[in-house]
Amino acid sequence: MDTIKLLEIAEKAKENAYVPYSKFHVGAALLTKSGKIYTGCNVECASYGGTNCAERTAIFKAVSEGDKEFEAIAISSDNPGETYPCGICRQVILEFGRDIKVIVGESKGKHTVFTIDDLLPKCFSGVDLQK
Ligand SMILES: O=c1ccn([C@H]2C[C@H](O)[C@@H](CO)O2)c(=O)[nH]1
Ligand SMILES: [Zn+2]
């Protein structure tokens, strides 16, 4: 599965975004190490704190189905520039591995690949709880 294909799947997942408040559509495509893909979109709520981002939707779908080993996650949004995961999603991505490739989409298939070390340096993680 190449990054462009994963990004295209994220772009398609964006169509299901439930965004009556922000009108900002986000889609994510999560590739597991076994080659399965889980998609996600953002789902908003009138009580705004109930909103779930596209990235976490995809990750929670996977985990709830028993998949926890991830290769990459691609993100696409209405933003013509790069779409980075928010802080909460970065923390959740980290929860499942430091080596997950985060494919940050831009328009027309342009993208950049990051690791969580790039996006969340000097972070708190489960390791800290074992000290
Ligand atoms: O990386 C991001 C950034 C924002 N959002 C969503 C949350 C909310 O529905 C809307 C505006 O913040 O975009 C995501 O799904 N992923
Ligand atoms: Zn988020």
UniProtKB/TrEMBL annotation:
Enzyme class: hydrolase
Residues the entry annotates as binding substrate: 42-48
Active site per UniProt: 55
EC number, UniProt record: 3.5.4.5
GO BP field: nucleobase-containing small molecule metabolic process; pyrimidine-containing compound metabolic process
Record-listed Zn(2+) binding positions: 53, 86, 89
Keyword Zinc among UniProt keywords: yes
Keywords of this entry: Hydrolase, Metal-binding, Zinc
Cofactor or coenzyme needed: Zn(2+)
Domain CMP/dCMP-type deaminase, first and last residues per copy: 1-127
GO molecular function per UniProt: cytidine deaminase activity; identical protein binding; zinc ion binding
Any matching Pfam family: dCMP_cyt_deam_1
Catalyzed reactions per annotation: cytidine + H2O + H(+) = uridine + NH4(+); 2'-deoxycytidine + H2O + H(+) = 2'-deoxyuridine + NH4(+)
GO CC annotations, alphabetized: cytosol
Family in the record: Belongs to the cytidine and deoxycytidylate deaminase family.
Primary role: This enzyme scavenges exogenous and endogenous cytidine and 2'-deoxycytidine for UMP synthesis.
The name this protein goes by in its record: Cytidine deaminase
